[in-house]
């Protein structure tokens, strides 16, 4: 019987039999005694036949298991290596961010210092450099400027047919190397036009077009003998503040990096993954026949075999990805001759089966001599034993099942998983599926806890109807469930079950005559032969669940080794954030909000920035999710609130400051008191402050959030609904709480001039707000066409790069002093220093 069966055992004890039943039962035993010898004989036949059958089948079965394990191990290792290769790409993005975060072109010394620090983190990255974009009219002035800076022989050059450097021919534009790290070894390449060679030119074109890193095919680098031992990567740099509101930002140049393929892969193998029992060979699919091998790693130290010979061996093929380059990869066992395990296992199974069969036969034979005595005792004890059994079943059920849902509880589930691990060590597959209901808290908050309990019981019933009887379901607590799936092929079975669960559990529920919809996120881990720790297995499933939630909920993810690294990276980022909060690395920037009617600045939205000592300027999208998940968003939000009120104290009295709220802040009982204290400390009234909250954040803290926001309204604080239209139940929110303003999400603004449908959506939002007498602000206004269309359809205020980018606090008074409503269409206060 499965642990998920919450019903009591059938009441079929001896009290249901007539009084003469014990005598009749003894009579049947005596007259049926010859059948016991038949049973012993059948046991011998069946046991022998089964043992021989398992002996014949186990060899092939073990080979299949070994093949699956080999493929899974090779796939995991290759995935980890691919993850490690992204480090070089991250360095180029960091270099570009460094260029685009400065208000001037970095000097050669600044570039070398910054580049050197980054290169130390990525072994295998040989060189980094900067090549500005120079047009034909600017060539002479550029060459003269570089010569005047201390390089008298500098000129833009290219290689001739003999491979020697000569003055570059006339072209429309050039990308000459201006900075290179390390400097002295690369001095001779200064001025070399990267676009003069077709292969590099095509790669630069891809980088400019896609606005991301592009890489060359394998090439020969300096001081490397192999002709295909490395590659070069390029990424476009655009001036940070060169946008004109209509045209794309111009290209300032490209940042480049030269990668030594073998050194980078060897570093990954040394620090992130060890190819225990595996050899790896990497090939360039577009290389010349017979010389396509880029890299190989062998524990035996033997020379690399040919590609054809590898295909003939036991192998696994995958793809190694380096930016936009794809290399064929073959992994083979280090010792392919190890084939004796299956034979030994099969022989062990045969011997164990025969021993077990002999033991059973011996036991049955000797039991026959004592049967008469045991039957007499059994007759007397049968009634008492049955009664005790019924009570024991009930007590065991209460001790091992959840009271609310009748599912197995945590203790019973752990026992089942431990049993499954023992079977997994014998080769039987097992998967753990960790389930968490999405939006369950909203049901408790809006309909009450009794409705939430009824929903949990309905979820449990659907789970029983969906899984097999052999699988074990448990409620771990709250809205978390888990399933142990055993005895089927993995991972295909777990994948199929996850699909069915998401479909079944996402269907509407009727709770107290109301329809309720929740979703589910699922994390999956597969038991390995060497797994022995139940807690470790559950933790892996929990990490996979966490990854599924981060992917957007309503989906499932299998555990991968990279999730361990992601968890460690999250902890590292959390420590950096704590350090940033304690050492004043955070700063607020302010973006103006302009009234369409008169062109005046009516307010500023406070936007968070992080001056990281190593990464430079970090934008909120790179660290706010970590702050939300670790709870650091509460002290960060309090700091932002106090800082914004303090810095805005010297602004004109009619200019407000808007600060974003997190659901974690709304959930705190002392949030209103925190706002009051911040207003008092800054000497500000509630009318100066506007708090922005998204629909989804309000839904997460629906009851507590409404209460807190109404108390804040009583203080004079304005409440704005941010990202309107991107969440759910927007009309319900507008009806239940009187918001002061609605902020139309920038995704709608971006599409309003491209299609009639986009314009119709914005028009409908503005008309709805006008009907409800709620002011409106359009975010992300970047073009004059967007501004004119918003003015025509009745928007109140606008915000975006068309007027100004976000400015540090020190620049706000200067911006306000120089603001002219008549000319306030394009931000002209910031000039590019990199053009």
Unreliable residue runs: 1-32, 243-247, 822-835
Tertiary shape = flat
Helix content bin: 40-55%
Over all CA atoms, what is the radius of gyration?
35 Å
Number of discrete helical segments: 25
**Separation, N- and C-terminal Cα atoms:** 75 Å
Provide the spatial order of strands within the biggest beta sheet.
21-22-24-25-26-27-28-29
Structural class: alpha+beta
Mean of all residue-level pLDDT scores: 80
Strand content: 15-25%
Number of strands: 30
Largest sheet: 8 strands, mixed, barrel
Description:
- This protein has 835 residues and is α+β, with helices and mostly antiparallel strands.
- The protein is 47% helix and 19% strand.
- The chain is built from 25 helices and 30 strands.
- The strands form 7 sheets. It has an 8-stranded mixed beta barrel with strand order 21-22-24-25-26-27-28-29, surrounded by 4 helices. A 5-stranded antiparallel beta sheet has the order 6-1-9-8-7. Strands 15-16-14-19-20 form a 5-stranded mixed beta sheet, sandwiched between helices.
- Helix 2 runs antiparallel to helix 3 and helix 16 packs parallel to helix 18.
- It is flat, with a radius of gyration of 35 Å.
- Mean pLDDT is 80; it is low at 1-32, 243-247 and 822-835.
């Amino acid at each position: 019987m499965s642990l998920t069966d919450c019903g009591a055992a059938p009441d079929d004890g001896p009290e249901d039999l007539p009084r003469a039943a014990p005598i009749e039962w003894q009579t049947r035993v005596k007259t049926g005694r010859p059948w016991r010898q038949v049973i012993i004989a059948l046991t011998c036949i069946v046991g022998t036949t089964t043992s021989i059958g398992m002996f014949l089948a186990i060899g092939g079965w073990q080979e299949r298991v070994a093949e699956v394990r080999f493929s899974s191990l090779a796939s995991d290792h290759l995935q980890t290596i691919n993850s490690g290769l992204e480090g070089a790409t991250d360095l180029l993005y960091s270099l570009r961010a460094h260029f685009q975060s400065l208000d001037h072109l970095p000097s050669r010394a600044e570039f070398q210092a910054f580049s050197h620090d980054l290169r130390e983190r990525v072994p295998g990255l040989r060189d980094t450099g900067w090549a500005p974009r120079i047009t034909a009219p600017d060539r002479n002035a550029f060459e003269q400027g570089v010569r005047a800076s201390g390089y008298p022989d500098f000129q833009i050059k290219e290689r001739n047919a003999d491979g020697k450097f000569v003055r570059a021919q006339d072209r429309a534009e050039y990308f000459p190397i201006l900075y290179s790290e390390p400097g002295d070894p690369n001095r001779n390449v200064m001025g070399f036009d990267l676009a003069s060679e077709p292969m590099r030119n095509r790669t630069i074109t891809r980088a400019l077009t896609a606005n991301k890193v592009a890489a060359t095919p394998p090439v020969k680098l300096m001081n490397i003998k192999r002709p295909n031992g490395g590659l070069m990567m390029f990424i476009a740099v655009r001036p940070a503040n060169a946008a004109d509101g209509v045209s794309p930002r111009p290209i300032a140049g490209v940042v480049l990096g030269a990668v030594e393929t073998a050194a980078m892969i060897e570093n990954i193998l040394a620090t992130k993954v060890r190819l225990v029992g595996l050899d790896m060979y990497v090939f360039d699919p577009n290389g010349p026949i017979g010389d396509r091998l880029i890299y190989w790693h062998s524990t035996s130290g033997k020379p690399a075999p040919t590609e054809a010979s590898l295909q003939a061996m036991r192998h696994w093929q995958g793809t190694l990805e380096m930016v936009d380059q794809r290399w064929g990869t073959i992994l083979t066992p280090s010792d392919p001759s190890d084939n004796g395990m299956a034979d030994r296992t099969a022989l062990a199974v045969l011997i164990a089966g025969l021993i077990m069969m002999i033991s059973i036969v011996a036991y049955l034979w000797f039991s026959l001599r004592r049967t008469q005595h045991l039957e007499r005792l059994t007759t007397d004890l049968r009634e008492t034993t049955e009664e005790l059994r019924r009570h024991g079943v009930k007590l065991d059920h209460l001790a091992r099942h959840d009271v609310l849902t009748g599912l197995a509880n945590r203790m019973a589930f752990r026992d089942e998983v431990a049993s499954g691990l023992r079977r997994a060590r014998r080769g039987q597959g097992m998967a753990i599926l960790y389930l968490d209901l999405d939006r369950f808290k909203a049901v408790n908050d809006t309909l009450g806890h009794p409705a939430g309990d009824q929903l949990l019981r309905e979820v449990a019933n659907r789970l029983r109807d969906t899984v097999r009887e052999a699988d074990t379901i448990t409620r771990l607590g709250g809205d978390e469930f888990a399933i142990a799936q055993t005895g089927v092929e993995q991972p295909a079975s777990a994948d199929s079950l996850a699909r069915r669960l998401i479909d079944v559990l996402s269907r509407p529920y009727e709770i107290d005559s109301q329809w309720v919809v929740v979703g589910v996120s699922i994390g999956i881990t597969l038991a390995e032969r060497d797994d022995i720790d139940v807690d470790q297995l559950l933790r892996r499933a929990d990490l996979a669940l966490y990854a599924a939630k981060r992917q957007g909920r309503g989906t499932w993810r299998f555990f991968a080794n990279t999730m361990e690294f992601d968890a460690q990276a999250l902890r590292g980022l959390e420590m950096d954030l704590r350090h940033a909060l304690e050492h004043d690395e955070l700063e607020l920037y302010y973006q103006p909000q302009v009234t369409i009617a008169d062109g005046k600045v009516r307010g500023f939205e406070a936007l968070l920035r992080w001056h990281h000592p190593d990464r430079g300027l970090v934008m909120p999208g790179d660290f706010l999710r970590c702050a939300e998940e670790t709870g650091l968003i509460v002290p960060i939000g309090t700091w932002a609130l106090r800082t914004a009120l303090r810095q805005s104290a010297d602004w004109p009295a009619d200019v407000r400051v808007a600060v974003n709220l997190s659901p974690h802040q709304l959930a705190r009982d002392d949030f209103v008191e925190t706002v009051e204290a911040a207003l008092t400390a800054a000497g500000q009234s509630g009318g100066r402050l506007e708090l922005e909250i998204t629909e989804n954040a309000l839904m997460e803290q629906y009851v507590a959030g409404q209460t807190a926001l109404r108390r804040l309204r009583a203080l004079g604080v304005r409440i704005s609904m941010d990202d309107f239209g991107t969440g759910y139940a927007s009309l319900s929110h507008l009806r239940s709480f009187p918001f002061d303003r609605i902020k139309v999400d920038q995704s709608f603004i971006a599409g309003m001039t491209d299609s009639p449908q986009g314009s119709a959506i914005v028009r409908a939002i503005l008309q709805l707000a006008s009907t409800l007498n709620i002011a409106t602000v359009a975010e992300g206004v970047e073009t004059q066409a967007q501004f004119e269309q918003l003015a025509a359809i009745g928007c109140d205020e606008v915000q975006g790069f068309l007027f100004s980018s976000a400015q540090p606090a020190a620049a706000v008074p200067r911006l306000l002093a120089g603001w002219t409503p008549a000319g306030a269409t394009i931000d002209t206060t910031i000039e590019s220093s990199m053009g």
